[in-house]
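Is this the right way to post C-alpha cells for a design question? Let me know if I should format differently. Anyway, here goes:
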C-alpha cells in the first residue's frame, strides 16, 4: 500500500512503461492474447529502468470505441496476476477494473477521463492508498480529433486540471497522491500539443507533479512533415520527453523505456 507522497515515490524524472493489453498486442500472431508474453515485456521495461508499468485494456487511441467491464477485466486481470508484486498502474476509467487492479497491488489509477466517466471511481481511489493521474481530454476518444478548438489551450487545460484536482480532493483523495497530465493528443491539434509543451511550466505551476505522455504520438510525425502520420518516431519522442523534462515534468509515459531512461538521465545531469 502506497503511503509516500507521489513526488517521493516518483522522483523527477521517472518513467512509466506502456503495456497495452488489447487483442492486437501480445498475441501469438492470431487471436490468442498471451498474458505471459505481456508479463515478459513488462519485466523488460522494469529492468530497463521503468519505475512503474501502466496496464491498459481499453484502447484509448483516437477513434477507438469502448469495451465492456467484463471484456476489460478479461484482458487485464491475467496480466495483473502475472505481475503481482511489480509496480503497476491501471489505465482505466472504470471503478470495477480499478478495484480489481488495486487488489492485485496496483499503486496508481491512470484515468484519462479525470474521474468524469465513472461516478464510483473517486471513492475506489479514496478508499485505497492509490496514486491517481488526472488527465485533460477535450471530447471523447471516438470524436476528439475531429475539430479540437480552444481560445487558449494552456489556460483551458490548466483550469480544467485545477477543477478536477479540487473535485478529487473533495472526494477524499489527498493532494499529495495526485499527479496532473495535459493529455497530449487528446482533443488537440499539432499546434495545441506544441503550445502545451512550450508552456508546460504553467501546468507545473499548479503545484502537483506533472505526467506527460507523448511517446510515438502522431503529432510528432506530423511535426516532421507527414500530415497522414499515425505514429511518431522514437527520436522525436525522446526530444519531446527531454523538452518536457526541462519544463518541469516529473513522470514520462513511454513505450521505449531503455532509450528514454538514458536520455532523461543525461537531461537531468545537465539540468540548470
Ligand atoms: C501511437 C502511440 C499512436 C501512442 C497513439 C498513441 C496517455 C495516457 C494514453 C497520456 C496518460 C497513446 C492511456 C494514447 N496516452 N494516459 N494514455 N497520459 N496519463 N496513443 O498522454 O498512447 S493512450
Amino acid at each position: 500500500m502506497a503511503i509516500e507522497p507521489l513526488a517521493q515515490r516518483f522522483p523527477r524524472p521517472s518513467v512509466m512503461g506502456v503495456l497495452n493489453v488489447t487483442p492486437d498486442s501480445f498475441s501469438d500472431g492470431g487471436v490468442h492474447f498471451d498474458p505471459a508474453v505481456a508479463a515478459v515485456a513488462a519485466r523488460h521495461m522494469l529492468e530497463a529502468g521503468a519505475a512503474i508499468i501502466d496496464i491498459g485494456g481499453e484502447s484509448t487511441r483516437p477513434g477507438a470505441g469502448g469495451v465492456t467491464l467484463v471484456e476489460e477485466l478479461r484482458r487485464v486481470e491475467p496480466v495483473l496476476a502475472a505481475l503481482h508484486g511489480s509496480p503497476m498502474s491501471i489505465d482505466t476509467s472504470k471503478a470495477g477494473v480499478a478495484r480489481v487492479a488495486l487488489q492485485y497491488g496496483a499503486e496508481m489509477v491512470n484515468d484519462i477521463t479525470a474521474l468524469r466517466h465513472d461516478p464510483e471511481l473517486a471513492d475506489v481511489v479514496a478508499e485505497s492508498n492509490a496514486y491517481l493521474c488526472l488527465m485533460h481530454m477535450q471530447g471523447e476518444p471516438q470524436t476528439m480529433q475531429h475539430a479540437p478548438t480552444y481560445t487558449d489551450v494552456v489556460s483551458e487545460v490548466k483550469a480544467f486540471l485545477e477543477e478536477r484536482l479540487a473535485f478529487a480532493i473533495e472526494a477524499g483523495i489527498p493532494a499529495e497522491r495526485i499527479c496532473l497530465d495535459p493529455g497530449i493528443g487528446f482533443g488537440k491539434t499539432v499546434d495545441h500539443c506544441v503550445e502545451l509543451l512550450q508552456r508546460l511550466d504553467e501546468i507545473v505551476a499548479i503545484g502537483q507533479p506533472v505526467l506527460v505522455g507523448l511517446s510515438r504520438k502522431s503529432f510528432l510525425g506530423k511535426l516532421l512533415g507527414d500530415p497522414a502520420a499515425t505514429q511518431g518516431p522514437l527520436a522525436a519522442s525522446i526530444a519531446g520527453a527531454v523538452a518536457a523534462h526541462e519544463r518541469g515534468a516529473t513522470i514520462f509515459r513511454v513505450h521505449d523505456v531503455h532509450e528514454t531512461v538514458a536520455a532523461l538521465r543525461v537531461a537531468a545531469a545537465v539540468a540548470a
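Format looks fine. Someone answered above. Worth noting: The chain has a mean pLDDT of 94. The first helix runs from residue 6 to 9.
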